[in-house]
Amino acid sequence: MSHRRLHVLIYLVAAVCSFPISVTAQPAPPAGISASDHPWDDGTEIDVRVELSGEDEDLVYVVEQASEFNGLYQEVERRSPTEEELESGVLEVTTQKNIPGNSYWYRASVVEDVDGEEVQSEFVRLDAATPAISSAQFYDGDRFWLAVITVLVCGSVVAFILMARSGAKLKIRPIAGLEAIEEAVGRATEMGRACLFVPGIQDMNDIQTIAGLTILSRVAEQAAEYDCTLETPTSKSLVMTAARETVATAFLKAGRPEAYNNDLIYYVTDEQFAYVSFLTGKMVREKPAACFYLGAFFAESLILAETGNAIGAIQVAGTAQPAQLPFFVAACDYTLIGEEFFAASAYLSKDPDQLGSLKGQDFGKVLVGGLILIGVFLVTIVGAAPPSVASHFEGAANFLMNDLLQSG
User: Fold this and answer.
1) Which of 15, 258, 322, 404 has a CA 20 to 30 Å removed from the CA of 24?
2) Predicted confidence band of residue 407 (pLDDT cuts 50, 70, 90)
């Protein structure tokens, strides 16, 4: 090597050695990490505990999850410890939406802000042989308050049934549509015209059809007492058979079995608008004095209601189809809205078990409705009040929504 090259090499070494090199020290990693199945859950949660490296509240801890020990890790939590966690020395994280029975590995690190730059520590990991595995428990503890509300509602149903059986008078709100049955049948009798009963267009597997046939029993009993003609065209053969049995039993109960006419209850067709065309034609030709539409209806509800209104009949309708209720309310004299329709059986029969069940359900509605109103009040305060005031109500609002009402 020539003297010139040696001098250049010595110069470069000296320049490098004299250049100030700044090395940022990494923060200390977490002291340890452990993970276990979350108790009393549905098998989708795992608890991760990270032992803090120190008491510096400015440190940020990052927790990552992978389905393989050396697989792809994904970040599941990044935050600073709370005051309680700083005191206990353990940061607790609960991961969600895990697959029951699958193995999961976790690792954690510390991130520190040094002169505006994030510096991350080494990772501390779960051992390869000890992954966390979630499993479903016998009971999901997150549903505890739902279970309490369920017990209260079921208990109230049993209590009201026992009260009704013991002879206690349970007040039931009068339902105008059911009270009007006697008036409608009486008017048809005075005018010498028939009553038309339409039990919807669904089959016997629909609860609305069953509810409609329950009311048909009361209408038939009134028709038997007043010696009024009751005609019931159906769109399903099974509904026809059930309606015949219902009306025959009602006439027998009224003491006039000989007045029952099997031919007045008949099958028309399964086709929706062919059935409606038959009904509207009959209504225009024969002009029944009272029309009852009680069951599941769809587009035909407006056609039937308008036709009955045009011929001047008293109309009583009832359905649980929300989209069809406006047509019935606008064109009919009385409408059983949703739950009134299903409560008709208890209202008409006065059976203690049914009345007690109805009152117990009302108690449950009042309870849940009250909780919702309280929740709305608390959330409004949290959103509108100053932070110093809102902080006192935020915990109660979260508890009500996430724990009691299960809306979180």
Assistant:
1) 15
2) low
Cα–Cα dist 293/212, whole Å:
8
**Matching residue, tokens 């410890």:** 81
CA angle 204, 208, 212 (to 5 degrees): 90
For 228-265, the pLDDT digits (tens) are 999 999 999 999 999 999 999 999 999 999 999 999 99
Beta bridge partners of 90: 51
3-state secondary structure string, the chain?
A: CCHHHHHHHHHHHHHHHHCCCCCCCCCCCCCEEEEEECCCCCCCCEEEEEECCCCCCCCEEEEEEECCCCCCCEEEEEECCCHHHHHHCEEEEEECCCCCCCEEEEEEEEEEEECCEEEECCCEECCCCCCEECCCCCCCHHHHHHHHHHHHHHHHHHHHHHHHHCCCCCCCCCCHHHHHHHHHHHHHHHHCCCEEEECCCCCCCCHHHHHHHHHHHHHHHHHHHHCCCEEEEECCHHHHHHHHHHHHHHHHHCCCHHHCCHHHEEECCCCHHHHHHHHHHHHHHHCCCEEEEECCCCCHHHHHHHHHHHCCCEEEEEECCCCCHHHHHHHCCEEEECHHHHHHHHHHHCCHHHHHHHHHHHHHHHHHHHHHHHHHHHHHHHHHCCHHHHHHHHHHHHHHHHHHCCCC
**Measured CA angle at 338 (ends 287, 226), to 5 deg:** 40
Cα(297)–Cα(177) distance, integer angstroms: 17
CA–CA gap between residue 198 and residue 216 (Å, rounded)? 9
Q: Residue length, the chain?
A: 408
Angle between helices 207-226 and 339-349 (to 10 degrees): 40
Backbone conformation region of residue 115, classed left if phi is above 0, alpha if psi is from -120 to 50, else beta: left
Domain annotation for the chain: domains and CATH numbers: 32-138 (2.60.40.10), 143-169+353-404 (no CATH), 176-350 (3.40.50)
277: its two tokens: 């065309």
Whole-number Å distance between alpha carbons of 385 and 67 = 45
Contact 223, 195 (CB under 8 A): yes
**Per-residue confidence (pLDDT) for residue 23, from 0 to 100:** 53
What are residue 93's phi and psi, to 5 degrees? -130, 135
Radius of gyration of the chain (CA): 37
State yes or no: pLDDT of 375 exceeds 90.
no
